[in-house]
Every structure is written in structure tokens, then in C-alpha cells.
Amino acid sequence: MAVVSLARQDESLPGREGRVAVIDIGSNSIRLVVFEDNGRIPGFLFNEKVMVGLGKRRDENGALHQDAIDDAMETLRRFRKLASEMQVTDMRTVATAAVREAGNGPQFTAELAAMGLPVRLLSGEDEAYLAAFGVLSAIPEAEGLVGDLGGGSLELARVSNGEVHETVSYPLGVLRVAELREKKKKGALKRAVTKALKAATWIEKCKGQPLYLVGGTWRALVRVDMHRTKFPLPIVHHYTMQPDRPARLVRLLAQIDPAKLTSVPSLAAQRIPNLPDGAAILSQLVKQVGLAELIVSAYGLREGLLYERLDADIRAIDPLIAATRDEGERQGRFPEHGDLLNRWIAPLFEKESDTDKRIRLAACLLADTGWRAHPEFRAERGLEMALHGNWVGIESNGRGKMAQALFTNFGGGVGMVGELVDLCSSKELEQAARWGLAMRLGQRLSGGVAGPLELSKVSVEDDKLVLSIDSGDAELYGEPVAKRHRQLADAFGKKTEMRLL
């Protein structure tokens, strides 16, 4: 498994300055994403998709229709202008199967180059590699098979120990599956998948391992599953399905009126016609390879383009910690407050797992972000930030624990929050509430500045929760601090003791 660092990103390392934009010309859609920079987890400034459908709008010889080219050029001129207005300094334009396979693809890309958008025409293997890099960017511990389903092709890559290994590309995108269906030959898709997989014997190494899902059609399919199972958190990233679920979705989509799917939250109407074919190919892939759980990645090819250029030292940084540290520094009052606060409360939680220590650090990094909010709504702000923030490298269970910690830290109390009980056990939420109370004590004692925390410590000794303060800071132990000291001690079932050092 890849080694991931919780350390701060060194600003001197390459790759942070300037806004970066990616234009992705796919078989179904053309998309522009503008990133704040090219750091470990860059912020998303803008994201727009236009369903141009280049892969469907071809003549009998495979060339792109002129009206399709005209629609694409209109979209691309808009994207070029937007990127210019947003002061993008690094523009990357890529094209995939629809342009790669079109007889007039070279003329199309030459026209784009002439208007200032030089195109990197990706091979199928390039697509697989970049999609896998995108998954590793968001889920560094990924071990198994990455599948990226587009309109024109299906890319597969094996990932292990933080590296991309074998890759392959098949002409089995959702548009191609639709063509197979139109031929009305029973079992055609199964035979096509079987034939394709036989040519890549390395895929057998992925048997019993997870499949990481990339691509708009599969993410849309997952939204249907989330809606059907009433999953409490409407975030697709790191949503997990068991291997029998795709076959069930195939049956569901064969029976349901497509019009009913419009009620599924965040499901783009343009994706609905492709869902049955997306489910069919997913079901065949899972069955024939013998894959285990299915894990959704919100990151794919576009994020892989950025990750590809990062220095190895930056790649090694934990994506959740990088993002929460950056957010804490943007919104907090005092630099490095979160790291110091985490070190200060750590002696109370020495027996925790590495996973919990990581989530606790992320919560501490966000512990000072609510001060601008109205006091009556700070707890809700912490809850919303943890649950619905654009984090990666964290599952729904971790979001729940982080949410409880921040809710308690911002004054919401130690009671379990109703919307978290389906994400975490009561024991996990009680522990997260203790994190929040410890964070709350440290912040009240120090006022958020470094000195008092650096000169004090907190510990559990027998039946007491001891707060040791430097004698020069004795005046800081007023009633507000004593009250939070008692609350934390009660949560541990201990008595309080204050000592002067």
C-alpha cells in the first residue's frame, strides 16, 4: 500500500502557482474545469459540461458531422474566453475516442490549435493511465482495478502500492453498447466483454479486489442506487456498492419508466438514456473478472492530468489533510493552529487507530473555521462543512466522525446528531464528541494562539483528567476554561485537576 504523508505541503516544491484549466473533449460531452492551482488538492473554481455528443454524430465513414463540429467549436470558443477572463495561466486541452477515431479528427484538432487550443490527443492507454492517476490522487490506498466508462470506450488499469501498472482500452463505451443492442443479437455484450478480457490476462490479478468507478454514466448509475437505498449522504465519492448491485440495477432499469428517474437528485437528464447500457457493461465486468466491492471515485482523467505533473513529494501528501489544512489556513485566525491543537489533545487518544488519528487531525485543522459565522449557527456550520465539503480521501463514516467532532467543538453539545447515526456507531460518535470537547478546551484556554498550548498539556491519570499549565499562564484558568475542563472530564468519566508547571 502507498505511504501517505500527513505533513504540510512545502510551498517551494514545484506546481502551485497560477490557475489551471482542463478542457476535456469526450464522446458524450465537452467539459471545462478551472482549478485554483496545481497543488496536491487544488480547489475547483469552475466546472461546466455541454453534452455535444460527438461520438453519436458521425457519418457512415466515421467522420464527425459538420454540425457536430460547429456545436463543439461554439462550446470551445466559450470555454477559451471564460478561461481567459479567469486569468488561467496553464490551459490543457485533451480529446478522447470520438476525435481519435474520426477520419476528420486531425482537421478538427488543427482548427483548435489555430484558435489557441492545442490538443493532446489521448490514446486509449493514455486515458486509462490518467483515469487511474485521478483515482490515486483521491484514494491513495486504492488497490485493484480502475474502470473509466466513456461514450466511445472503456478503459481499465490496475493500481497497487500507489502506482499504475497495466492498462488497456476497449471500444465498449455506452454508445458502442447501444450499437450492439441495436443488432438484437442475444448475448452480444457478454461475448464482446469476454473476448476483450481474454486479450488482457493481467486482469486476473484483480479478481477479488475492488473496482474503482470513473465516468459520468457510472456516477449517474450510482445516484440511482443511492436514491433507491435511501443512502443518507448525497455524495458519490467513495460510495461503495456490493458486487451483486449492478445486476439488480440492470433489472430495475429494464422495468422502470425512465421518466421516473428524473426525480433522482442530481441525476442529469442527459445521462438517463445511457443508464441501462452503463449498468449492463458494469454487471458483465464484475461477473467475468470476479470483482469485489465497487468504489466510486469523483476524480478521474482531468484530475489525473494534474496529478501526473506533480513532484513525487507532493503526490505523497494525504489528500484529506492537504485540503483541510488549506481550508483551515484560509478561514482560521492563526496559522498552524490546527496542527498544534491536534498535538495538544493527542495524549488523550493515544490508543486510537491510525485511521481515527487521521480523521481527528482533519477535524482539528478545521477547528477554527467557524469564527466568522453567527454564534447560534457555528455548530451547524461545522456539521455542514464536514458532511458536505468537497473532500476526498475520506469515506462517509469518516465524514460522520469529523462532523460530530466539529459540531461539538463549535458548541453543539455532546449528544449524537440524528443525521449521523446512519453513518457511524454510537461508540464512534461518542469518541468524536470527546475530540470536539478536547478541541474546545484547547481553544478556550489559548484563545487560538500558540503560546498557551505550547506551554501546557492535557492528560488522563488514573481517575483524573489533568490540565497542566505553565505558572506564567495561571491567570488563563478562569471559569470559562474550568467549565470546559469539567465537560471534557465528564465525557471521559473522570474528575478534574489543574496543575501549575
Features:
501 residues, six-stranded mixed sheet, alpha/beta, elongated
Which helices and strands occur, and which strands form pairs?
Layout: E1 19-25, E2 30-35, E3 44-50, H1 66-85, E4 88-95, H2 97-101, H3 105-114, E5 119-121, H4 124-138, E6 144-149, E7 154-160, E8 163-170, H5 174-182, H6 188-198, E9 211-214, H7 216-229, E10 240-241, H8 245-255, H9 275-289, E11 294-296, H10 301-308, H11 312-315, H12 319-331, H13 337-345, H14 354-365, H15 378-388, H16 396-409, H17 426-446, H18 450-454, E12 456-461, E13 464-469, H19 479-492, E14 495-500
Parallel strand pairs: 1-4, 4-5, 6-9, 9-11, 13-14
Antiparallel strand pairs: 1-2, 2-3, 6-7, 7-8, 10-11, 12-13
- Strand proportion: 15-25%
Q: In DSSP terms, counting alpha (H) and pi (I) runs of 4 or more, how many helices?
A: 19
Query: How many β-strand runs?
Result: 14
What would you call the structural class? Answer: alpha/beta
Give the low-confidence spans. Answer: 11-15
**Percent helix:** 40-55%
Report the radius of gyration as a whole number of Å. 25 Å
- Biggest sheet, in brief? 6 strands, mixed
As laid out across the biggest beta sheet, the strand order is: 8-7-6-9-11-10
* Through-space gap between termini: 43 Å
Shape: elongated
Mean pLDDT: 92
Explained architecture:
The strands form 3 sheets. The chain has a 6-stranded mixed β-sheet, with helices on both faces. A 5-stranded mixed β-sheet has the order 3-2-1-4-5. It has helices at residues 66-85, 97-101, 105-114, 124-138, 174-182, 188-198, 216-229, 245-255, 275-289, 301-308, 312-315, 319-331, 337-345, 354-365, 378-388, 396-409, 426-446, 450-454, 479-492, and strands at 19-25, 30-35, 44-50, 88-95, 119-121, 144-149, 154-160, 163-170, 211-214, 240-241, 294-296, 456-461, 464-469, 495-500. Helix content is 44%, strand content 16%. A hairpin with a 2-residue loop joins strand 7 and strand 8. With 501 residues, the protein is of the alpha/beta class.
